[in-house]
Amino acid sequence: xxxxxxxxxxxxxxxxxxxxxxxxxxxxxxxxxxxxxxxxxxxxxxxxxxxxxxxxxxxxxxxxxxxxxxxxxxxxxxxxxxxxxxxxxxxxxxxxxxxxxxxxxxxxxxxxxxxxxxxxxxxxxxxxxxxxxxxxxxxxxxxxxxxxxxxxxxxxxxxxxxxxxxxxxxxxxxxxxxxxxxxxxxxxxxxxxxxxxxxxxxxxxxxxxxxxxxxxxxxxxxxxxxxxxxxxxxxxxxxxxxxxxxxxxxxxxxxxxxxxxxxxxxxx
Length: 268
Description:
The protein is of the alpha/beta class and about 270 residues long. It has a domain at about 95-150.
């Protein structure tokens, strides 16, 4: 593993993993020999814009293949004959997702169920259950174009969960939310981690502190740390045992990140 700091993976058998993956865009290397495992619970991918977080999510979603290395999803290596079956067990919330403003919330969620090959007889109930999960069932008849940013994000989670996935991928899910919306959304993501494996990319230390069980720090396409959030917080103090749970906050996570990055500010 190309890490300068690492900790043993915790939790159960990984739901997803990448081993020695490299991805290049022309002469630019987006990921360089990256190895990570993703067990149940919430794993954060922390790093500045351009660190390779979104590229890694694209590998886990089967949208992209690595130049070299292996990707394992739900115990399988994606192959052309297996990709469609694997995608039925994966939910994705992009940083920006498209929707028809005139669709109602329920119509949009049912449409997502159709895209994910949910059987026709189950689509309406799956959509309603997903909306209940994100506390949007009372707004099922509202038009998508009339929703606030926080409500749109909740519907985004609903469409990602409508196929009852084993793996959920969230790309910068709290960007653009006001502080109150961010708090509520973090609580929702934490609850999702009790149902399935969640991988969340973010450049916000507060997101990691309040949501994640584990964290991987990506810098310039390489993994600089992987372990628990407490272990990341302990790095500046040289305490291998990890930080006290009561000491974990955004500032402590940022201090651990800065220790790895060797800089004075988290790049946004």
